[in-house]
What we know:
The complex is a heterodimer of chains A (about 130) and B (about 190). Chain A is α/β, with parallel strands linked by helices and about 130 residues long. Chain A has helices at about 35-50, 70-85, 100-115, and strands at about 5, 15-20, 25-30, 55-65, 90-100, 120-125.
Amino acid sequence: MEVIKIIGTDDTPSVTLDAQNEIFEISGRSLPEDVAAFYEPILDWLDRYAEEPNNKTVFNFKLVYFNTASSKLILDILLKLEEMHEDDKEILIRWHFPEDDEDMEEAGEEYADIVEVPFEQVSYSLD
Amino acid sequence: MDDKVDIKDFLEFVYSFYKTMKDHEVTLVYEGEVTHQITKAFTSLTETNMEADEEGPSTQKKVFHVMVECLQNISKHAETVDVNDLKKDGRGIFMLSKNVDSYNITTGNVLNKSKVDQIRGMLEKINSLDKDGLKMLYKQQIKEGRLSNKGGAGLGFIDIAKKTGNKLFYNFLSINDEYSFFVFTSKISRNN
């Protein structure tokens, strides 16, 4: 499968989707001007990946900020991973948040409540 | 404005405008179209100022969040027509003020009266909920809501109330039979 590698900017996140090397990560800030257009290729990639996924998929979210428009698209990504999980694929979401960022931790908790998929919260230090 | 009296009036207006801004502790005010570039410029300027003021990281994040959502509300929902009846959407006024206790973020924009009841209903509902109620509403809306063609998720006000922990202040002022002016203020307590 082709690799998606997007370098982040001050308003769009870094994205790496690399099935062969087992890297699935979205990190940084997400408030794209056109949120649907930004996330469309990512969601399309996941649809294709879901046809023949790896035995295990660990998807890392390491966002420091996302706006509410992005939050809807992040849920769409999680729902695709949930579908794979329902198809008996091994899926793990790792939600990374800065240790002092309660809002980002809470955002992870809320997603974990919404989707039925193994979900791990990971705090990290910014230093 | 080539008349001397007009110029004098104008210069006096500038001074009174300056004083009014000082009285209300307004640090940033803008009227016009809210584009993505404007949103980026204002948030980045405010971040720099808060850094310089050594504002706590939590307050900084909340101010950033609320600014983005408020500016996007204008760019996505404001609607108005100019004197020639030409549509001019996505315009409004944006204000940031700061005092010892809080940052206040205010927007004002024109909208069609047909939208007033729905927005008022949403804001009243948000203000009636506690923290857990807001979380429930957020989860419900993110699951059931659809992204509008303008990229809005219907989550902005809920998110602002959740993040600030404060009630939302708003008013709808009638302009004419067709339009109202919607004023919205949210408060971010400092050092929370």
